[in-house]
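Dock magnesium ion; give full complex structure.
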Amino acid sequence: MAQNTATPLVEMRNISISFGGIKAVDHVSVDLHPGEVVGLLGHNGAGKSTLIKCLSGAYHADQGEIFINGEKVDIRSPIDARSHNIETIYQTLALADNLDAASNLFLGRELVTRSGFVDDARMEAETRKIMHRLNPNFQKFNVPVSALSGGQRQSVAIARAVYFNAKILIMDEPTAALGPQETEMVAELIQELKKEGLGIFLIDHDIHSVMKLCDRASVMKNGQLIGTVDVKKVTDEDILGMIILGKPPAQAA
Amino acid sequence: MTDTTRPTADATEAQPSLLSRFLRDTEIDTRLLGMAGALVLIWVGFHFYGAIFKGFGAFLTPRNLWNLSVQTSSIGIMATGMVLVIISRNIDLSVGSLLGVCAVMMGMVQVYWLPQLVGLGNPMIWVITGIIGMVMGAFIGAFQGWLIAYREIPSFIVTLGGLLVWRGCAFLMNRGETISPLDENFTLIGGGPYGAIGATGSWIVGLLGCAFILWGLWNGRKQRIAFHFPLRPVWAEMFLAVLGCGLVIGAVLLVNSYEWPIGIVRQYAAAKGLTTDPANLHISYGFAIPVLILVVVAILMNILMTRTRFGRYVFAIGGNPEAAALSGIKTKWMTVKIFALMGFLTGLSAIVASARLNSATNALGELDELFVIAAAVIGGTSLAGGIGTIFGAILGALVMQSLQTGMVLIGVDAAMQKVVVGAVLVLAVWLDILYRRKTK
Ligand SMILES: Nc1ncnc2c1ncn2[C@@H]1O[C@H](COP(=O)(O)OP(=O)(O)O)[C@@H](O)[C@H]1O
Ligand SMILES: [Mg+2]
């Protein structure tokens, strides 16, 4: 494919990280191109979340290198990650339940007035704008997000990534807590963001949605990368085999 | 100007009751209203109990209410800090002891050391002493916060240790001896006839307060118009303006109607060489200085919590510490800052408390931690973290102090007072749980 010869948006090379002797991620390399969705698959505990946390700044890899647009970067904190336009939607929704949508959307990056106070009115106005685009039905702006449904909460989390012009979006099981309709909404959103040229890492348990939404899929097991395949060239069974047996399919992509 | 009231989306639903419509339009917080109601009940209850069974209702008198305001100051100042500590899912059991050690330190500074350096009665003594007390409190608080955040020792343990350590230090520093009297300027901070701002001063403060309220309402409305947010109906704005200004002016009238006792007036007249008959001199107390300190602290702390990033982060940490950290908030450093602030306010409270008694003893502030925590919790701060308001905590402190004062006035003995205060605390938290369940 043409895009795979260009410089990748993200390249994670030989990433390793262990916790008290357990190798959660063991020499894993993955990459991502603009406008591409790469699925990360594997059983619970395979190391998917840990791998992407090295990119989002929540963890710092013991070994390995990360390149953004071909340049080596050192990501030591979520703030570093954000400065590279990396936004993350975490598996456990990283929202503060007691705050409203606007406060969550701008958490850590509040808009302030000239005198340095948080500008709640402007943040709410901005939130109304972005939510109107992503989820026009959303109305609950003045209540804590604990009062929102799973889908509404997820749209707040996604709005946060979109608002701050993510170029690299990490989604860790974004639909795990959602009903079918809400899952569909997230799927549509992913396709739209992909069209806008974002690169997306998508961790998802549902092989069908991975087959539908992703261009490539990387499969992990016990912290190791089993392989990366082009989803158009493999079947569901091939990927299932990789996940369960930990064997790459006959024709590696 | 046309009035864009909120859309009547519930046209199909049954008409909401008059009361709920009123609360919705004025946006008055129902739990704050409930607490104010409880406070009025306590006041009226004690007053009429006294009037009926003791022949004299002593509670609703200028004298008692003025004293109540002064007694609430010390606990109230600390309660504003405790709100932050509890919102961020911590607790501070050491504030009473910290108050004691800061007070003894300040006692020694202003009575033993500074007079020798700068001369007795030097007007800088109270300034330097106060700064030392607050800085000492902030440092000790920061140290405890560091142990909690960076050494990951639970705050309950760190501050339980602190409760013993600082109380012990307060004793050791001056071998348990009481330091008294304190510097004359310093004691003004504690209130008393000279530690109050008088009638004119109180009117100035009151009018400034009214101007502030009106400006706040007007500015809020301007903001809402600018962003096309739903507005309160004009009558609701009017109501809030009248209510706010009415409370402020009522407070001014109250503190101004409390006059100096004749003995003090004589003393004052003699000192000033006045020839008027002291019996004809009516001098009002006006607002006590510690009360003004509490008001300023409350306003600043409320701004901190609702209008700054720091406050936003305190709430975020309480709501979801992991999410806060992933959003780039330095949660550990925040914890240190929160405890430093708590310590700073405890130092300030130590100034007020020791100045009021005109003495510093190692026992000062004993059991204060419980009253402070109770004030915050009664005021709606959730022990689960993430929820709480500064004004609620001050109302909570006022409730606690009103109970205490009222029981003293009607002659409830000390043991029974403890039973009542303890029971009220538990009851208040239970009501709070019921309230939250209902409004969820
Ligand atoms: N902070 C941590 N401390 C200790 N072990 C961890 C930590 N984070 C992840 N692990 C371990 O790393 C492994 C991979 O976990 P994870 O990345 O969450 O898997 P996945 O997201 O694929 O289900 C698991 O064995 C997990 O217990
Ligand atoms: Mg995971």
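Observed: The longest helix of chain A spans residues 180-195.
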